[in-house]
Amino acid sequence: MKRTRKKVDVNLEELDQIIDRGMRTPLNEAEGQKLKTALHSMAERLSWKRSTEKTSAVVNQPATVPVEERNTDEPAPAGHGRHGAAAFTGANRVSIAHATLHAGNRCPECRQGKVYRQKEPATLVRFVGQAPLEATVFEMERLRCNACGQVFTAGPPETVGPDKYEETAVAMIALLKYGTGVPFNRLENLEQQLGMPLPATTQWELMEAAAKLIRPVLEELIRQAAQGSVMHNDDTGMRILRLTREPGDKRTGTFTSGVVSIIGTWRIALYFTGWKHAGENIAEVLKQRARELPAPIQMCDALSRNTPKLEGVEILLANCLAHGRRQFVEVVENFPEQCRYVLETLRGVYHNDALAQEQGLSPQERLRFHREHSGPLMKELHDWMEAQFAERKTEPNSGLGKAISYLLNHWPKLTLFLQQPGAPLDNNIVERALKKAILNRKNALFYRTLNGAGVGDLFMSLIHTCELNGANPFDYLTELQRHAGELQRNPSEWMPWNYRETLARLATPAAA
């Protein structure tokens, strides 16, 4: 929630007069209060604003190791943040042989041994600048007979396809627009500056046509997402200029809902933009869930609009512990000691979850680990919060009291990770996913129509699902277009985590 700053009118001439009088005679109460208000306002504006909600930053914890005791001779971590050559998985690789030596040659240094090729070559990385989309003009020679007038034109190269815009161009536009938030007009201006005009209207037409071509893969993603064991959902505001609502719907807001479904080691990200809330959108996804599967865990914040209202589908509802923690972060300045206790307790819980992840524990093992190590922490926190009200240490209507009430009112859902295997602690994964929609909103401001929003949802779903599963979204979108026919027949073989195996199978002689 954005805090509104109280406006303070400062008259510099009046403040100068107050200071001048204060150097001769004591200030009266009104003058002292005015000077204090101005100084406090200035200090607030100049104060450092934290950009993180980590406990150490929120409660201003002292360093665990005194400065004088630190070993300043320790070497800096290797790498210093630079990427090694192995990180450039999409780069072109050029093998360069030694100019004078070959494997098995006599060593020119000692003249006794022989040189042999090393397993790891020396590497050198060089970047070059180029346009996001490059155009090639083929100037095909034309010959005309001076007798009959017949014109003979050279044919285009065999490698050039029939379409003006290659699949890679469409994939790049989609990645720029829906993956990194570059509006069509901005890309048009950039390409124009580089001498390769690419109108915004053309970009949109390419996106719309490609979305129709590869839509079966989104439908398959939705079907598979419905079978997930854990499903996260949340939404954010999104503006649509032209929107026709369903009859009888009196709501005025429009939203982009994010759904992240976890199926084993795979993660599927889905986006839905329109007048429906996150709970309604996840309900539509769950309609495709197989009835024989156990109830999924649904993680969201405590807003009722995030909970699906769907008959015949049972869910295990979990609430976001990070949302509950944030209640205390917002009032830490007024209740530093009490909030410190809560934040440090929850830090211990998150530390335990990180240890479970590092050790690669199964859901059952993670549950036992949390019950043993996090259970006592949460029980102690629960008892402390109840004592705050029972012993009248905290006013229920205060900021601290409201933060405590939030945790107590949603305690069973906030602590589902102590009862159910695989239950997450928070909803951060879908909040990170929504940043892609927010980035698009900040740059493009709105969708013109619901159809445009649907195209954006499709590409954002495919791009972020690739990111969550370590796939290359540019390569993935390119191959989906090139194999649209196979995709239509069997979309399940074209998921971001298995399309490479499908391509290898199609490339074998038996498949051909």
Structure explained in plain terms:
By secondary structure, the protein is an alpha/beta fold. It is 44% helix and 9% strand. It contains 18 helices and 9 strands. Helix 4 packs across helix 15. The radius of gyration is 31 Å and the shape is globular.
> Main β-sheet, in a few words?
5 strands, mixed
Class by alpha and beta content: alpha/beta
Averaging pLDDT over every residue, what do you get?
88
Low-confidence stretches: 63-70
Overall outline: globular
Strand residue percentage: 5-15%
| H-E order | HHHEEHHHEEEEHEEHHHHHHHEHHHH
Number of strands: 9
Order of strands in the sheet with most strands: 6-5-3-7-8
Q: State the separation between the terminal residues, measured CA to CA.
A: 58 Å
Would you spell out the secondary-structure blueprint of this structure?
Blueprint: H1 12-22, H2 29-46, H3 55-58, E1 142-144, E2 151-153, H4 167-180, H5 184-193, H6 200-225, E3 230-237, E4 240-242, E5 255-263, E6 266-274, H7 278-286, E7 297-300, E8 316-319, H8 321-329, H9 336-358, H10 363-373, H11 375-390, H12 399-409, H13 411-414, H14 428-444, E9 447-449, H15 450-468, H16 473-482, H17 484-489, H18 499-507
How would you concisely characterize the structure shown here?
By secondary structure, the protein is an alpha/beta fold. The chain is built from 18 helices and nine strands.
List keywords for this structure.
single chain, 512 residues, alpha/beta, 5-stranded mixed β-sheet, two-stranded antiparallel ribbon
